[in-house]
Structures are given as C-alpha cells and as structure tokens.
Amino acid sequence: MVIGGGFAGLATVNAMKGANLDITVIDKSNRHLFQPLLYQVATAALSPGDIAVPIRAIFGNNKNIRVILGEVIKIDPDAKKLQLVYETELTFDQLVIAPGAQYTFGNAHWKQHAPSLKTISDALKIRERILLSLEQAEQMEDYFLINQKGFQI
To answer: Residue 29 contacts by C-beta under 8 Å, 6 or more apart in sequence?
Structure first.
C-alpha cells in the first residue's frame, strides 16, 4: 500500500510494478501533479490539464495496481490497517507513506502575504490575481494618459 501519488509514491510503485505484488495507491486528488510547472499555469502559459495526469492513466495496463481516491485519517501499524475519510478501512502488508510536503517560511505572519503554489487551485488563484492586476494597470495607464493631456474624467 502506498499513500501518495506524488513523485516519491509513484517512484515507489514504479520500482515494484514488475513484482508479483498487489499494490494499492491512495491519493486525495487522484492525479499526479507535476509541481515544477505550476508557475506556468499561474502565468497562463499552460493549462492545468497539461501538468496533471490521472494516476490510473500512468499505471493503466498494470492489473496488479489499484488506485483509490481517498484521504487517510488514521493508521494502526500494529493491526496493519488504515482508515480513510468516510469510514473505509483497508488492510496492508507493507505501507509506504509518501504524502508530500508543506512548506513554511519560518514565520507564521508571512503566510498571508506569500501565496502558496502547491496545487492547481493555488496556481489558478495566482493567475486570476495577475490577470486582474494587469487589467487594473491597463486602466491606470489610460487614466494617466488622459490626465496628462488635460482631459476631464
């Protein structure tokens, strides 16, 4: 069982896919996101679909790999069980935990001024802020040009 469909989780599954094992991948978004290109989604150079691939599509031909959309909320290592949201319980023989990472800036006050860029949703929020700022800047330029020529607004 592998928790996480990011780089570490998929590398683990890829290393085991030829073995005679039944592998279950659990991921809360059900897609692998190529995070290094999120900035291009934020700047409208790429669409979200260009950097997000369904995990099932990556391992589609492997009959021994199962993908579950879910979020793990409890792990009982002694009983070799884990619980997903909505009370689904799964058992495992071996468990790899690769849920990804969160970054911090070392100062809780900075978070409100530094938008996150870890998800497609984050990238789209930044894109919207950029595009709205450009629209506002374009209107400001017209305002200043009109005022310089002595026109009334």
So the answer is: 5, 69, 119
